[in-house]
Amino acid sequence: MSEPAFDAESALPPGPVSRSRVRVRYAETDQMGVVYYANYFVWFEIGRTDLLRTLGGTYRELEADGLTLPVIEASCEYAAPCRYDDELTIVTRGRLLSPIRVAFSYAIERPDGVVAARGRTEHAAIARDGRPRRLPPLLREALAGSRADGERR
Amino acid sequence: MSEPAFDAESALPPGPVSRSRVRVRYAETDQMGVVYYANYFVWFEIGRTDLLRTLGGTYRELEADGLTLPVIEASCEYAAPCRYDDELTIVTRGRLLSPIRVAFSYAIERPDGVVAARGRTEHAAIARDGRPRRLPPLLREALAGSRADGERR
Amino acid sequence: MSEPAFDAESALPPGPVSRSRVRVRYAETDQMGVVYYANYFVWFEIGRTDLLRTLGGTYRELEADGLTLPVIEASCEYAAPCRYDDELTIVTRGRLLSPIRVAFSYAIERPDGVVAARGRTEHAAIARDGRPRRLPPLLREALAGSRADGERR
Amino acid sequence: MSEPAFDAESALPPGPVSRSRVRVRYAETDQMGVVYYANYFVWFEIGRTDLLRTLGGTYRELEADGLTLPVIEASCEYAAPCRYDDELTIVTRGRLLSPIRVAFSYAIERPDGVVAARGRTEHAAIARDGRPRRLPPLLREALAGSRADGERR
């Protein structure tokens, strides 16, 4: 691959960041011989799960506590394919948009350093009754570092 | 394909039967160019959902009524591959094993008449509290026709 | 659901359109009790497969002919949840962006008329050797109707 | 969980063994709040991929070399549910059934030591032209240790 490797993290907006590893499963490939495009969104979810864990909570606990974070927007730009058995890195950054809204940015890094894809998801914080509910203070604080940087890539 | 087409239904045990259609999704293929093996179990679930519907209930209603049918055993034999965009028929037969246990048999039929796979799942009827609960009488009756035929293929 | 139903088609850009039906699979739900967000992209692929079929070709034939349409961008906005066993309509519109680039817009319509989600994918036309290749003339023509309408939603 | 934990490995037939770790993804759950049954077969594939790696080859290399191992039979018995974010261990054992046939046995171990499921897959060794082809000698040797133990669980 002649594409120049570049630092996935530097291209992401500031804020808390985590790095997760996934190895591409056979189930994730399609007959084009590469990873099927919808599966990147599954990896994004792994990324934000891990990021929340590094911030001192888990999404599992949030849900047990009655708070869910349904996705309200999701997008991905695909730059280079990923293949079976590749060991990928998911670089995830989180950002508080408001007390009841959070966004995550993602980069999928291949073993050769190429950024295969970049994505973004936006989430509403919702209580069990379906109404908006503020994120827990510690999580809001941890995610708020980058609020002054503008909301969008 | 030189394999002789044969009647999928005749190879299934007696009992109520339904036929469902699915068209193979690109997402369901893998890099071997055929359908990934785990996806047949997703089709089986479509088959049993449709069979229950023809028997006058829906699985959705069963769950709303507090009864679930978790899988306790599942198996599949793969005879011939399925490919992207193939229009397949799922032939499903249900059988009551006991008031709290039910089994389904499946055949996946390709457009050329070849049976691509056969499978079987066994389910326990469980209440919300995790304890066994008898299936509703109407469903038990509908599924009981074949009880004398022996439990296994 | 108090949300007013509105016409999914009118909100899509002009161009050839198709309507596909899918019934939500149990496999497509998650523990939140609704469809997992990545699965909408699988439905989008069903939509564009069907749209190409109505335009007189199939994606299967395109690939057999050495042309692939890898996704280079994908996005989705989620407005309302979809649930197990719902019968959904995928409304798909296609648009030629250039002889080697095509975009599709999607709306997922629930049985109650609510538009659960809207999405968009953009695709490059690529030959087997990985180089750009013009779409077949008939397909270009069929998709070109809306070129003057501006490229983006 | 009152179920006694027992050693998953001791219940598997002898032969080379590997242990893989997976963390349950949100995408893998369904509306019952537990892992959807078909996903266990995806984990099995991770297990056998890892086992082959420990035996000194990779499935990726086998395929690059023109040999595929399509599944011809697959089964799973489900004993206890797995939940989102659980860290599971996949214990995999491989066994040569003949120079052109191999079987793998699997146990899915939960963090609390409970064996959630046991499974088995059987595979044919097939060349690119679709005809049977002997497994590479080194792999045959590594998998042959348990041939005298009887072919089935």
Short description:
The first copy, chain A, is α+β, with helices and mostly antiparallel strands and about 150 residues long. Chain A has three helices and seven strands, in the order βααββββββα.
Describe this structure in words.
Four copies of one chain form a homotetramer. Chain A has 153 residues and is an alpha+beta fold. Chain A has one domain (9-147): Thiol Ester Dehydrase, Chain A (Roll), CATH 3.10.129.10. Helix content of chain A is 19%, strand content 33%. Chain A has three helices and seven strands. Chain A has helices at 39-54, 59-64, 137-143; strands at 17-23, 67-68, 71-78, 87-98, 101-109, 115-124, 126-127. The first copy, chain A, has a five-stranded antiparallel β-sheet with strand order 1-4-5-6-3. Chain A is elongated, with a radius of gyration of 16 Å. The relative contact order of chain A is 0.25. Chains in contact: A-B, A-C, A-D, B-C, B-D, C-D. At the B-D interface, helix 1 and strand 3 of B face helix 1 and strand 3 of D.
Write the layout of secondary structure elements.
The structure is a homotetramer of 153-residue chains.
Chain A lengths: L16 E7 L15 H16 L4 H6 L2 E2 L2 E8 L8 E12 L2 E9 L5 E10 L1 E2 L9 H7 L10
Antiparallel strand pairs in A: 1-4, 2-7, 3-6, 4-5, 5-6
CATH architectural label of chain A: Roll
Count of alpha/pi helices of chain A: 3
Output mean pLDDT of chain A.
88
Strand content of chain A: 25-35%
* Count of individual domains of chain A: 1
DSSP helix fraction of chain A = 10-25%
Most extensive interface between two protein chains, with residue counts: B-D, 22 and 22 residues
* Major sheet description of chain A: 5 strands, antiparallel
Q: Any low-confidence stretches of chain A, pLDDT <50, length ≥5?
A: 1-7, 146-153
Q: How would you spell out the order of helices and strands of chain A?
A: EHHEEEEEEH
Oligomeric grouping of the chains: homotetramer
Give the end-to-end Cα distance of chain A, rounded to a whole number of Å.
Answer: 27 Å
- Specify the CATH homologous superfamily of chain A: Hotdog Thioesterase
Report the CATH C-level class of chain A.
Alpha Beta
